[in-house]
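=== Discrete structure encoding ===
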Amino acid sequence: MPATVLARLNFRHAPAQALLAGLSAHSILPLERPVSAAFGLVLGILAHAVGWPIARGGTQRVADALVGYLGSLGGQTNTSMYVTSLSELPRHRAALLDLTPRQVLGIEGTELPKRYRRQLARYRYGPGVFKVDWALETPIPWTAEACRAAGTVHLGGTLGEVAAAEAAVWRGEHPARPFVILAQPTLVDPSRAPPNRHIAWAYCHVPNSSTVDMAGAIESQVERFAPGFGRRILARSTRNACQMEASNPNYVGGDINGGVQDLLQLWTRPVPRRDPYATPNPRMFLCSSSTPPGGGVHGMCGFYAARSALRRISLTAGSG
């Protein structure tokens, strides 16, 4: 729901309004835009139902577990090659590309018709992110007691401040007080840091392809709600939006959402099709966050793409 609507609902306390604004800001859209509230509602429901889990030992453990399970079924993985053409792949009945439209267009041998390629070329990307990782001497000294035990903290101030920061990013500006999403993994997983030490990471939204260093603005927001935070920092590592893309080409301009998720591109990503995971090439499928339901830690894009591929393989086998 738009920020203007949030202010009129029966949330009489400013903290409740700010909480909903922060959750909705995960859409990386101005809060006045339609569908931004969908993100807030879904994330809020998940937080109340199952929480927002942190993988023990680091998120890499999740990928390791999936690779291990695939291996137990006889599958193989190869992460040491950069694929530029489908001809480089082993013989296959289906290829699932975990790529955004820009990367798909750069792959040779896709055999996609011009109309479909034009549609992919029109795909829109949104704002990027600036990320900072900290090594800390102690946990963050939040003034709010609840934040000292929270795995994830949203920093934005009031509803108006969050809305203003997100709107500024869409105007191509870098807000002085950005909306910040911050994680504190060592509060629940001490194994991620040396004994009696801690880590935290945070990011804020920035214009696409930004090279501006937002570390100071982010740390000022943390200091605002946790006085003395700066004195706890032992070291920091930062990545601007362009560096995010350099580390993962799917983050086009630093866009970690796989493309804008507004009303026009929420369920029509990457192009309007009855089966958005299938392509005109009967052996090629898309499974990235540029397909529904979009960005997020859920894996459903791959699940639906796999189901689409299995359905088409089954139909092909049946007709043969």
Q: What stands out?
A: Residues 1-12 have pLDDT under 50 and may be disordered.
